[in-house]
Amino acid sequence: MAELARENELEIGSKILLLSPLCMCHSPGGQHDDDRDGVSALKGRDKRFKGSAESSGPSRSPDPIQTEQSIRQQINHLLNTIYDASNNVQATIQEWTPFALVTSYFVFSLCLYMICTDQLVAVFWWIYLATNFYIAGSTVLEAVMSITPCREFRQAVTKVEESNFQFPTRDCDLLVLDLLIVAYLPNEAELIMDRIYYAVEQIVFPKDKIRINILYNTPKPIEPLETEMRNLTFKFPQLRIIKVPDSTSKADNLNYFFTLETGADVIAIYDCDHYCHPYGPRWAVERLVQDEEISVVQGRCVIFNSNASLVTRAVAVEFDKIYAVSHPGRARVWGFGIFTGSNGYWRAPLLRELRMHGDMLTEDIDSSLRAFSKSVNTIHDLNVVSYELAPTTIAALWKQRLRWAQGWAQASTKHIVLAFNKPAAGDARRPLRPRFGIFSLLLIREISYYLVTQYFCLVLSVLMQNVPKSTSMLLRLLFFQYPVAYWLFIVR
């Protein structure tokens, strides 16, 4: 150690001696050259030392503002990631919760019937069969009563066709019509231009008596689509494009339009996926002109993509049963009709007064029932035809029918009191026939859907506990377990 320390001292001393200005200036010739070489070497070593010190030394202090902005960006990115993840989880829960609830409903019901006594099963069986008997009887009655209006509407079409489509009312005497097409963008961005061109070019109605209004809302600008729609107003004077601010629903769009003073006598409502028949508006306005007691005309909706899938074929058959049989038959039996959300024509003052309640899942049914509370006359006209799209997949149909079921349950709970109270207008008493009709529609009809599913669970539990060994045994278990079943089956 002592020798190492002495070597270090000699090396340091030699460095000081060589770097001394006196030695560099006054050393003899040969020695001066050697010293100069040593000084050059030391300078090179000094430069390398400084360079290594700069490279290995502490870095330049960062800008506080840039550091703060970087931290904020990282925090915002993290928060956005968490927000997107929570939205995805929430959407997944909302999408699968109804399915899980329905599954648990069936599983619970099935297990419940499997532990019930035979006497209790017999009671449930009688209740379910009696309810199904009433629903089947009502359906048959409505079908029979729909024959007459179907024949009358067919005769009206034949009469107009024979006169080369000359309607009873002159064009100058028609009511002014505001036809509304309600759209949500971007979901219906691919449909809207086609529907606009169809409406302005194909509808047969005096141009000075109709205004076609496109009501749409969108969470963000959609260009060039919005500009293209606005430019069409210069080509078609009867067209108006209305972008509804701060709207999140169909009800918001409609309520915004109701605040506008348009001077129209009639307001027609269509969803964006509809094609109204070219003569549909004329038929509806004719009914309103000929009978001042009529306040609402509900047309017939037909599925035009029925060949798209098996689902659309089933929905097409269902719609024909609903709009061509049930609605006109119910109106003839019970004396009232209902507005179903699209292809409906209202007298403008009434619709502006009622408006749409955005808190209702099916605001159309709610508005129709509120009109019923005022003793408004709503009719169904099979000549007022509109063509619409049906869901093409089971998943899309499930979402649509889930919303309808929830909306009908909500509206039924709110308006079942109409079967018992007085009309909102005046002190006139509501006749017994529409009272029982609304009671049947809002209570018995709603309960019947749940009872039918319960009947399915009941029958399935019986089959699981008593596996049939022959066809006759299967039929007996399904239909003829109790004497009352024979009578109900024969009557039906």
What do you see in this structure?
With 492 residues, the chain is α/β, with parallel strands linked by helices. It is 63% helix and 11% strand. The chain contains 17 helices and 8 strands. It has an 8-stranded mixed beta sheet with strand order 3-2-1-4-7-6-8-5, with helices on both faces. Helix 4 (64-114) crosses helix 15 (432-465), helix 5 packs parallel to helix 17 and helix 13 runs parallel beside helix 14. The longest helix is centred in the N-terminal third of the chain and has 51 residues, at 64-114. The radius of gyration is 40 Å and the shape is globular. Residues 1-57 have low confidence and may be disordered.
- Say how many strands there are: 8
Biggest sheet layout: 8 strands, mixed
The helix content, as a percent range, equals 55-70%
Distance between the termini: 118 Å
Q: What's the order of the H and E elements?
A: HHHHHHEHEHEHEEHEHEHHEHHHH
The average pLDDT is 84
Strand content: 5-15%
From the spread of the alpha carbons, the general shape counts as globular
Low-pLDDT runs of 5+ residues are: 1-57
Q: Which secondary-structure class do the elements indicate?
A: alpha/beta
Task: Please tally the helical runs, counting DSSP H or I stretches of 4 or more residues.
Answer: 17
Furnish the topology, listing elements before pairings.
Elements: H1 2-19, H2 21-26, H3 29-56, H4 64-114, H5 118-145, H6 147-162, E1 177-184, H7 189-202, E2 210-217, H8 225-235, E3 239-243, H9 250-258, E4 266-271, E5 275-276, H10 280-290, E6 294-303, H11 310-334, E7 344-347, H12 348-354, H13 363-373, E8 377-388, H14 394-415, H15 432-465, H16 471-479, H17 483-491
Parallel strand pairs: 1-2, 1-4, 2-3, 6-8
Antiparallel strand pairs: 4-7, 5-8, 6-7
Helix pairs in contact: 4-15, 5-11, 5-15, 5-17, 13-14, 14-15
